[in-house]
Amino acid sequence: MKSTLAFVILLTSVSVKALTIGAYNIRNFDYDERYRISTDKVELSTMLNNLKADVLSVEEIANTPEFQNFISSKMPGYKASISECGGEHGQHLGFIYNSETVELLSFNEDLSLSIEGGCDSGSRPLAIGLFQVKTTKQKFYGMTAHLKSGSDSQALNKRAKQFELIKNIIKDLKEKTGVIDFYLAGDLNTTEYLSRGTDYKMLTKFVSDLGMIDLASDLKCSAYWWGGSDDNIEDPTLLDHVIVTPGLRTNSNKAVASGHCQKVSCRQSSVTDLGISYESVSDHCPLTVTVQ
Q1: pLDDT computed for residue 61 by the predictor
Q2: Under 8 Å CB-to-CB from 221, ≥6 apart: which residues?
Q3: Exposed (0-12), middle (13-18) or buried (19+): which is 260, by Cβ within 10 Å?
Q4: Distance (Å, rounded) from C-alpha 12 to C-alpha 103?
Q5: What is the CATH superfamily name and number for domain 17-291?
Q6: What is the distance between the alpha carbons of residues 171 and 129, in angstroms, rounded to a whole number?
Q7: Long-range Cβ contacts of 179-182 (<8 Å, 24+ apart)
Q8: Cβ neighbours of residue 146 under 8 Å, at least 6 residues apart?
């Protein structure tokens, strides 16, 4: 009887594959023309490998050929699938994934999120990947988003339209494909989230309407900015999120922000204290969470 029970427990444990998913806005990889800063690829390589992610949504990939070379040379076993379109600022987005644990069945980009533009104008597209866990054959959709930035009324209105578009895309894919597990991650530019302003209300409603869960809702920050004053003190903000359907959630999983967010515990900090990941890789921090 004991051996039978042990066998059942073993079957249960191996039939469910825990996955680490997340998001990282890698500031204009591999050269930020605005600040004239080259991406520190040694630091980025260390950070990405330490995440041990199965699927990571990535944004602001300006140099896509170099990013492919970087992943191939610095992350053995990983592959990258990046959008052809990047909006008016050439900020491409997509996924890096562990090809030993998951298979990418399809990849496409939805240009409807650009709203007023196209491939090289307007906002960034939505990157959509259909993945399958190799051990269990479980299928799930990953979506990488980089929504309109800014806190003015025009930016808020555009983000509201983008949320509505994503909602319809998810509902349509569920109906047409029968796949029920989804995650949406990336820089949603929720500038008023921590203050419980318009962005917080928009995102909360979006998540509720879809019956999904924002695993980053309790984070104190996911990025830093100059705070509007030249005092060398940077302010924390929460712009990035990882939102999942209930089938990808366990009772205790919450997203973790690493990098400089973890280093200074989301406190107001100097550029020096934030360190190299902030100065030479990105103002954002990687978010990861283990799901099933």
Answers
A1: 98
A2: 194, 236, 237, 238, 257, 261, 266, 285
A3: buried
A4: 22
A5: Endonuclease/exonuclease/phosphatase (3.60.10.10)
A6: 15
A7: 179/130, 179/139, 179/140, 179/141, 180/245, 180/247, 181/138, 181/139, 181/140, 181/141, 181/244, 181/245, 181/247, 181/248, 182/140, 182/141, 182/142, 182/143, 182/212, 182/244, 182/245, 182/248
A8: 25, 59, 60, 91, 93, 123, 124, 186, 187, 189
State the Cα–Cα distance between residues 262 and 104, nearest whole angstrom.
30
pLDDT at 229: 87
Distance CA 278, CA 271 (A): 7
- Residues with pLDDT less than 50, the chain: 1-16
Strand partners, 233: 270
Q: Strands 102-110, 126-133: parallel, antiparallel or unpaired by DSSP?
A: antiparallel
Centre a 10 Å sphere on the Cβ of residue 34 and count the other Cβ atoms it contains.
8
Residue with tokens 């020096």: 272
For tokens 């895309």, the residue is: 169
282: left (phi over 0), alpha (psi -120 to 50) or beta: beta
Identify the CA nearest to 14 among candidates 136, 137, 99: 136
Q: Tell me the whole-structure pTM to 2 decimals.
A: 0.94
* Paired tokens of 288: 């990861």
List the beta bridge partners of residue 107: 129
